[in-house]
Amino acid sequence: MSQDIRVLIVDDEKAIRDTIKMSLEINKYVIGEAATGRAGISQASEFHPHLILLDLGLPDINGLQVLKELRIWTQVPIIILTVSDDEQTKVDLLDAGADDYLTKPFGSQELLARIRVALRKGGLVEATPLFTSQKLKVDLSERKVFIADQEIKLTATEYELLSRLARDHGKVIPQSVLLKQIWGVSGIDQNHYLRIYINQLRKKIEENPSVPKHILTEPGVGYRLV
């Protein structure tokens, strides 16, 4: 499973990075490294990892802030490495989008097992702030959308819907998930909201909105961006 799977290690302690790197490379993972939070965010956009190991205590910005910034544009599995065993800290991390956490010190076999589980759950999707398909480009880090290099204007709701589809491009996102994430619990039964905004998006990004090539409907299930 690990062949050609890229893992980004974001930790300011070189000894820890070296230990993790050695263990993962033996198991055929391809490794990227960063020693600060900002470098980690930059590396994530350039290295396109399939999974990120993120230290909580970084010298510039803490791991929680890095996690929140990464979650703006990627849904790849993120496992937090922390010396804290505080329950509230763990709750905050999971609520912010962490897939798992490991309390230091930890063994290599446990780390490998956690990685395998996270990859099985998340699927093999690489982190990238850009979604491109034919003339369409969605820049998730800059919150901009282009058709043939011409920026198009979307409403805040239109962008949130398109960006949610772009972060998990190729996957079918259930209607109930989209409604809850964009309109909250009160919007779960408002399927007409989704139909209205999907139609508006198609008019803006599709060459022929009646025969869409980007935003596809999976009848009775949801939508996916291809």
Topology:
Layout: E1 6-10, H1 14-26, E2 30-34, H2 37-47, E3 51-55, H3 63-70, E4 78-82, H4 87-95, E5 100-103, H5 108-122, E6 130-133, E7 136-139, E8 144-147, E9 150-152, H6 156-167, E10 173-174, H7 175-183, H8 191-205, E11 215-218, E12 222-225
Parallel strand pairs: 1-2, 1-3, 3-4, 4-5
Antiparallel strand pairs: 6-7, 7-8, 8-9, 10-12, 11-12
Quick check: average pLDDT?
90
The percentage helix is 40-55%
With strands numbered from the N-terminus, the spatial order across the biggest sheet is 2-1-3-4-5
Q: Can you identify the CATH superfamily of the largest domain? A: Response regulator
Strand content: 15-25%
| CATH fold-level topology of the largest domain | Rossmann fold
Domain module count: 2
Structure description:
The protein has 226 residues and is an alpha/beta fold. It has two domains: 6-122, Response regulator (Rossmann fold), CATH 3.40.50.2300; 130-225, Arc Repressor Mutant, subunit A. It has helices spanning 14-26, 37-47, 63-70, 87-95, 108-122, 156-167, 175-183, 191-205; strands at 6-10, 30-34, 51-55, 78-82, 100-103, 130-133, 136-139, 144-147, 150-152, 173-174, 215-218, 222-225. The strands form three sheets. A five-stranded parallel β-sheet has the order 2-1-3-4-5, sandwiched between helices. Helix 4 links the parallel strand 4 and strand 5 (100-103). Helix 2 packs parallel to helix 3 (63-70) and helix 6 (156-167) packs across helix 8 (191-205). The protein is elongated and about 55 Å long.
